[in-house]
Amino acid sequence: AVWVSEVMLQQTQVATVIDYYNRWMQKWPTLQALAAASLEEVNELWAGLGYYSRGKRLQEAARKVVSQLAGRMPRTAEDLRKLLPGVGRYTAGAIASIAFGQATGVVDGNVIRVLCRLRCIGADSSSPAVIDRLWDMANALVDRSRPGDFNQALMELGATVCTPKAPLCGECPVKQYCRARHRKLFGKPTPVPDVEDCGAGDCPLCPKATEPWDSSLGVTNFPRKAAKKQPRAERTATCVLERRGRRGVPEYLIVQRPSSGLLAGLWEFPSLLLAPGLREEEQREVLADHLRAWTGQPVETGSLCFIGEVIHVFSHIHQTYVVYSLSLDGDMALDPASSPSRWVTEEEFHASAVSTAMKKVLRARERQRGEQSGRAKGSKRKRGAKSGAAGS
Questions:
Q1: Where is it located (predicted)?
Q2: Residue-number span of the structural domain to which 266 is assigned
Q3: Most buried residue, 268, 318, 368, 388, by most Cβ within 10 Å?
Q4: What tens digit of pLDDT does each residue of 241-278 get?
Q5: pLDDT band at 385 (very low <50, low <70, confident <90, very high)
Q6: Which residues participate in catalysis according to the annotation?
């Protein structure tokens, strides 16, 4: 349970995780149950939570525990990192201290903020020198008798009191030790206690001379972060390919992504990454060629109905989906030699392992259908009113 919660909470807020966590633990309450599940089931339950490789590695590690470690979880942070895929330094420390009582520290975003402010560490908080020093501090500070409680309290301190903006310094239980607060109150940093804490002249922990203390920011001068790298921009042509099902309900073709890379193993509408600078007609042509491979039928560019653009920002990609729709008459045989694909109803689509971006794409298609229906009804009313007037 601790392991699952910590993996889900990586780069995801608690409020988002709660429902996913409860559903996961209800479905797979033990390592053995998770190891017996299929990757498709894992992806379906994880859909919408983001960073999908986390769920895949969680299941891979559960299978390893069951098949290679006799069902027994490693008990120390060192062994957890060494033996389980997807378990890094923080996750290993959290599991070892909370679940197994090992006196080992943890360093997450909240802890980084607390410790950087406590010690006025003004260098880039993501630099190896700073991260190593923070881990040394966390391991030295952790309570030996209640390490799990201490680590959770330290993280909670950062989440609720020592917040990124408007921290509640007056309520902080460690305010008397906080050098950033001392500097805010008295206008100057506290003296460095000994030479071992700070290299003379070129300290890897101190702020650069080009980044002076801003008195208006107070303790929120820390931690310092490197400039965030802008996500690269990509454009992808996507087609909502649909047909009338047996009961007259629309069915959509979804295809499975490769087993590695972005959104590995998830399902999506037939999509194609676009080369930069393509004109609209060129986009239609390359998409039509791509669809011919799926349908085995000729696809005319003029039959592709443009829906609009859907934007979805991943952690490192600003993705623009150029969305088209195409309605097919009659049945269509899917090529078993190509990637896995299947026809699904709207209900089956939402129950499948599809990304949030694809759900946005389907909503765009549904809006288009609603607008087309509204225009059709409006034109009928106008014709009726006109004929009625003429008859009177």
A1: Mitochondrion; Nucleus
A2: 232-380
A3: 268
A4: 998 877 778 899 999 998 888 888 899 999 999 999 99
A5: very low
A6: 6
Residue 15 contacts by C-beta under 8 Å, 6 or more apart in sequence?
none
Q: Which residue has the tokens 């194609």?
A: 272
Average pLDDT, the chain: 87
Tokens of 189: 């940093």
Largest CA distance in the chain: 101
Report how far residue 8's alpha carbon sits from residue 3's, in angstroms, rounded to the nearest whole number: 9
- Count CA atoms closer than 13 A to 179's CA, side-chain side: 19
pTM: 0.77
CB-CB contact of 247 with 267 (8 Å): no
**Number of structural domains found in the chain:** 2
Note whether 361 and 260 are same-domain residues: yes
What are the tens digits of pLDDT across the range 157-188?
Answer: 999 999 999 999 999 999 999 999 998 887 66
> Do 86 and 57 contact (CB within 8 A), yes or no?
yes
SS3 state of residue 252? strand
Same domain, 131 and 9: yes
Contact 299, 288 (CB under 8 A): yes
Q: What percent of the chain has pLDDT over 90?
A: 63
Q: Does the residue 237 lie in any domain? A: yes
Task: Specify if 346 maps to a domain.
Answer: yes
Assigned domain for 209 exists? no
Cα radius of gyration (the chain): 28
